[in-house]
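Quick one, tokens below. Sequence please?
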């Protein structure tokens, strides 16, 4: 039967699980079949015997199903390098290039001639650039936090980018080029699993 750990007392080595049937089952440390300490909320599989749970195994954490809302707005979970590059970084780069190209096409050409009559700036491209930057701010943070999670780091690791040059290079290497931790970590299941 499957269930969830309700609580565990490390002094008495006893705990409780709520089964999928809605009933409560007690267990002891001797019934626990995982190297980690039992923790509230852990998803488990166990053998039920009356009101007792035996042979309690922790289930691997499952990654939530992919949705764009989760990917771009949530700070929970992990994303792989492939998702980081192909679903976030590449589309954002293409969008910035498209806005830049639009800026070139709609630029005031009088400034380029050198008579000083025009500004050389495209107001349409400028507004679009500000809009894209503002709209991509939170999704950028969310995706990068999930990449930090895949590396088994807190989202606060992003603050390393405040260190001039070295911080940004380190962050680029960590998020863009180094594989995440294999298997489950404290932030969820392996996105490659």
């Amino acid at each position: 039967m499957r269930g969830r750990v309700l609580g565990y007392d490390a002094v008495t080595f006893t705990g409780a699980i709520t089964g999928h049937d809605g009933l409560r089952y007690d267990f002891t440390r001797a019934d626990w079949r995982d190297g980690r300490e039992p923790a509230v909320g852990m998803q488990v599989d166990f053998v039920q015997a009356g009101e007792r749970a035996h042979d309690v195994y922790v289930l691997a954490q499952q990654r939530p199903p992919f949705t764009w809302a989760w990917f771009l707005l949530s700070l929970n979970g992990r994303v792989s390098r492939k998702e980081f590059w192909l679903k976030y970084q590449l589309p954002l780069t293409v969008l910035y290039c498209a806005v830049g190209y639009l800026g070139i096409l709609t630029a005031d050409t009088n400034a380029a001639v050198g008579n000083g009559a025009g500004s050389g700036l495209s107001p349409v491209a400028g507004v679009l650039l500000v809009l894209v930057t503002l709209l991509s701010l939170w999704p950028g943070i969310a995706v990068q936090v999930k990449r930090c999670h895949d590396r088994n780091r807190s989202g606060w690791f992003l603050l390393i980018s405040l260190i001039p040059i070295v911080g940004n290079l380190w962050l680029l290497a960590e998020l863009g080029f180094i594989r995440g931790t294999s298997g489950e970590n404290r932030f969820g299941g392996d996105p490659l699993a």
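The radius of gyration is 25 Å. Residues 52 and 187 are 30 Å apart (CA to CA).
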